[in-house]
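Researcher: Re-running this chain for the archive, since the previous output was lost when a drive failed. Same request as before.
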Amino acid sequence: MTKKILALGLLSLGFSSQVFASYGTGYSSYPMMSDKKFFSTEVTGITSTGGGVGAQVRYGQKINSALLIDAGVGISGGERTNRIFAGADYEIFPDYLNQPRVSVKTTITNAEEFGTRRNILSIAPTVSKGFSFWGYEAFPFVSIPMGLSLESGSKTYETISSFNVGITGNLPIERYSHLTGTLEAIVDLKDSYSGVFMGVSFPIE
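Model: Regenerated structure tokens:
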């Protein structure tokens, strides 16, 4: 029982996302069968300047063994009030034996930040690996989203980057093991933001 509580605690500390800068890595690192579809609800918390608590929803689909696409919308308190985003994650190397999974995720986001509408194009190299935690499999990941943020009014742009680290896995609860939880912490590297995302994903048949 103690191990189950600890495993649940690790996941519930921050069920993601997905997709700011790119507004969270999302469920890209979680292994899925081709044509698998999911819908996720996420709580977002930005702790840096202009931050606040918010929520977003995300739809995703595994197109084939290498490609996953997702899209979503979100709202937040503070100065980052709303956004709409879409992304695609392409697997370069699979998670196999001692080899970690390596992929690249590209995301385009239209967001209102600090009273200004911005278009953000980012690319995020991502590394993940499956491990067993107290008998439950989970997938820690690290990604470094980098990109350009274009301010629609002044037509100026700036480069942005962040360091994202998280974990994704099925909930270690018998009745809810078909649900996937994800935790993601985001650290600002350049002109981005810091925060924590938490979410639960529901499979769509």
